[in-house]
Amino acid sequence: MSLEKFINQAVSSWMSDDGPDSDIVLSSRIRFARNLDEYNFPTLFTNGEAEAVVGTIMERASNTSIAAFGQLEMIKMDEIPPLQKRVLVEKHLISPNLAENSVHGAVLLSENEEVSIMINEEDHIRIQCLFPGFQLSEALKTANEIDDWLEDYVNYAFDEKFGYLTSCPTNVGTGLRASVMMHLPGLVLTQQMNRIVPAINQLGLVVRGIYGEGSEALGNIFQISNQITLGKSEEDIVDDLKSVVSQIISQERSAREALAKTSNIQLEDRVFRSYGTLANSRIIETKEAARCLSDLRLGIDMGFIKNISKSILNELMILTQPGFLQQYAGGPLRPNERDIRRAALIRERLKMETKDESGG
């Protein structure tokens, strides 16, 4: 399979489409945790109850479609190989927990992959909407529509005092996790992130890496999300996060302007060195690739590089993960083989940009 065809099949809309403030905010995500009233929660349910939950959601999905997204495709975790599960995790469409630990787990996916509904993860249902750029309100609106679509058919576990009941107490209340994925090289290079992260935490928000809890902030990509789900409305939670993210966007732009004024030639040199590494390396590890891709994207945003689309960071941060590399290769790869494949894929992807620019 050609790389171009592989990318067309593999890239979700949040990776390739533009959105508001997409020079800094790569994606916006809303996730609802829900449980069905008539069954034990996944921490205690039987295999029979797990199967019944899947059957209930499958029946809802097969009987009606969601107006904006059409029919949803059901994928059962026990019917796909581990490599395909890993790819779904790398695309942020399912959680590692669903891929590795779920009993009778499944996911419903919209065709454009903006919507995924995980079944029998930590909770019976996890509704996720993932949009490009800074679109938290739009993602919330869609998530609420899907939530209503499901609630017309099932009874949620709900308490008048505590709200939606969930397996983990930290999700009780709205069951809402709102998050944005941000590219913040300016704040990292000006050494401001160490000051900003504790300030964000004091506001009831949390800063994590690209794959959420426990993951590393590779390529200067940070995920910022709410921690509080009880005692606030969904709109208030999202508005609070939007306010903080708007300030971070402003600070990142100021940091980039400061770098352009005080260290422009050094910054340009850094960008083109990274570009050269990506365009010519025969072996490259994940961390080095992430750092160089971050520099390349910064160079594109700041106008140093004009012939490469800015979606390259979003795409290649995902496509160079181990699952995707092995899927593209058609089978398992040892770590060194993945590093070779990663370098080759990046070189070929950059050549595609040059080819498009020349009209070839």
TrEMBL record:
Per UniProt, the short sequence motif RDXXRA motif of the pArg binding pocket involved in allosteric regulation occupies residue numbers 338-343
Describe the function of this protein: Catalyzes the specific phosphorylation of arginine residues in a large number of proteins. Is part of the bacterial stress response system. Protein arginine phosphorylation has a physiologically important role and is involved in the regulation of many critical cellular processes, such as protein homeostasis, motility, competence, and stringent and stress responses, by regulating gene expression and protein activity.
Record-given protein name: Protein-arginine kinase
Provide the activity regulation entry from the record.
Appears to be allosterically activated by the binding of pArg-containing polypeptides to the pArg-binding pocket localized in the C-terminal domain of McsB.
Q: Report the GO molecular function annotations.
A: ATP binding; creatine kinase activity; protein arginine kinase activity
Q: Where is the Phosphagen kinase C-terminal domain?
A: 24-255
Q: Which domain of life is it from?
A: Bacteria
What this protein catalyses is: L-arginyl-[protein] + ATP = N(omega)-phospho-L-arginyl-[protein] + ADP + H(+)
Q: Which PANTHER family would you find in this protein's record?
A: ARGININE KINASE 1-RELATED, ARGININE OR CREATINE KINASE
GO CC terms: extracellular space
Taxon lineage: Bacteria, Bacillati, Bacillota, Bacilli, Bacillales
Family to which this protein belongs: Belongs to the ATP:guanido phosphotransferase family.
State the organism named in the record. Answer: Mesobacillus selenatarsenatis (strain DSM 18680 / JCM 14380 / FERM P-15431 / SF-1)
